[in-house]
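**User:** I keep going back and forth on a fold encoding question. It is easy to fool oneself when nobody else works the same problem. Could you pick a protein and write out its sequence and tokenised fold? Could you put it straight underneath, so I can go through it closely?

**Assistant:**
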Amino acid sequence: MSVVIKSVEKGSPAAKKGLKPCDVLVSINDNEIMDVLDYRFYQNDKLLKIKFINSAGKEKCVKIKKGETEELGLLFETYLMDEKRSCLNKCIFCFIDQLPKGLRETLYFKDDDSRLSFLFGNYITLTNITEHEVERIIKMHISPINISVHTTNPELRVKMMTNKNAGKVLSLIKRFNDAGIKINCQLVLCPGINDGKELERSLKDLTELENVECIAAVPVGITGHREGLAKLEPFCKETADAVLETVKEYGDICIQKYNERRVFCADEFYLLAGRDIPDADYYEDFLQLENGVGLWALLLSEVEQAIAECDFDDIPPRKISIATGEAAYPLISDIVDKASKKWHNLECNVYAVKNNFFGGKIDVAGLVTATDIYDQLKGKELGEELLIPSVMLRNEGDMFLDSVTVDELSEKLNVKITPVNNDGYDLIGRIICQNL
């Protein structure tokens, strides 16, 4: 499949050799270019043979000499150079199926694209991957690959994902492992379905593969919008505690075998079980932050470092507030207490926002909406500034899940609203209004 060139960067190696918009890129060094992975991999060579078809329909070939890290200079209609691939599964725990109606159309798109795994760290199920892509991953040795496994029991995986191929593709995990591809695994756990003995089976199977470098156990998220969907129960203190014990057991096995823990639980399991979250050292390289593994420990560690490194004890009087999800409320309150002990002119109110928008059962900060913030904070003492976690907003940093912008919410609450990155130094800096 050839791809049409949308534009060519001025002064780039491609421009100097006469490639133009609307030309069709065919191959680089005799390797067919089908998408962004092909293009980015093969353009890195210093000497390139570019085959393309010009606007007159004539096939041409040019040789380009460039720096090894120098960009060729071609731009395409989309970043992937074709369309994103949507998910073919109907998972019983799918969060997108539990979204209320009326949200932005883009929020309902389910991606399951192997290219996004490498480019942006997305997790894929392997049910949407072609043999060509498998061979390409192995040939290019693209690593790591992030896989939503959920269970290594083929029959159970078929049932959980409502896809007859879901069990067959589990063999690809071993194939990637044997090829030396590093693998990060995600297990979304549903009580009574893939926890207990099934979790033990999955962890036993995965920890036997030397290139599975990290496994995250994540509790199923259940909203109040499950009409017509499979019946699922949330984790309770006892079931969460059982998961923690199983994960610890296999983590200890990995320490003995690989000198690395490798198996971790999302922070939410500790909160559900009423246990203290481990210190930052426990999480090694923090490979699964996107799954909520070690977020609490890392943020607290960074905050403590940031406070310790500040060589001033006085700040101008400051009165602010912070809005967060119910799960993170104890952590943020603890952080504010630490900051207040060092800077006595600081007055900061922390508000836990209950997620009524999703039915009240979701407590993570990243899914809090502007609607719930407004309904629960209007009339409250907010001070001169309201800080919110940036994960509440879409990637552009301007809009909540319910399509309300930061500026709109700021105007309604009559307070300056500042998003804060999930970084301890940024958080302390924003709290005391100082550049750290």
Observations:
- DSSP finds 14 helices and 14 strands in the chain.
- The chain has three domains: 3-76, 96-293, 299-432.
- The mean pLDDT is 92.
- The CA atoms of residues 5 and 105 lie 28 Å apart.
